[in-house]
Amino acid sequence: MEYDATFFAFVGLVIFLALVAYLKVPGMMAKSLDERAENIREELAEAKRLREEAQALLADYQKKSKEAEAEAAAIVAVAQREAAALAADAKIKTEEFVARRNAISEQKIKQAETDAVNAVRAAAVDLATAAAQTVLAKQSDAELQARLFQAGISDVKTRLN
């Protein structure tokens, strides 16, 4: 019987399959595939865990961001209230200052008026005294002058004592 190439190919295939079965290649392949599937499962679980951690961190940072925004808004509101209070206080102090300055100016004006009136009165008294002196000098004689002089001296003495 003559063996052709098909027979040898068949024998080679049977030997190969026997050798593969003897060396437990399908078991090793299944084991390798199982290990790879387990590694993939572990990597997926790790990725899922990392994703959950990332989402938790994101939620935490978003919460902190909102809190920071609220705190910043509160700080801005407080600053605006303080600025308004300072502006109102400055306005009140300015008005009080202007009122005090007006009062001082009015007092100075009244004092100047009083001084002017007193100066006019003093000038009028001096003028009246000078006029009376000239009138008395023209109308009085030596005897009247001596009596007036004596009366003035006695008046001064009574006032000094």
Mean pLDDT value: 88
Beta content comes to: under 5%
What percent of the residues sit in helical stretches (DSSP H or I)? over 70%
Regions with little confidence, pLDDT below 50 for 5+ residues: none
Succession of helices and strands: HHH
| Total helical segments | 3
Task: Note the overall shape.
Answer: rod-shaped
List the helices and strands and how they pair.
Layout: H1 5-22, H2 25-139, H3 142-160
Compact description:
By secondary structure, the protein is an all-alpha fold.
Please explain how this structure is put together.
Keywords: ATP synthesis, Cell membrane, CF(0), Coiled coil, Hydrogen ion transport, Ion transport, Membrane, Transmembrane, Transmembrane helix, Transport. InterPro entries: ATP_synth_b/b'su_bac/chlpt, ATP_synthase_B_chain. GO terms for molecular function: proton-transporting ATP synthase activity, rotational mechanism; proton-transporting ATPase activity, rotational mechanism. This is ATP synthase subunit b. It is found in: Cell inner membrane; Cell membrane. This protein is mostly helical and 161 residues long. The chain has one domain. Helices cover 94% and strands 0% of the residues. The protein contains three helices and no strands. The longest helix is centred in the middle third of the chain and has 115 residues. The mean pLDDT is 88.
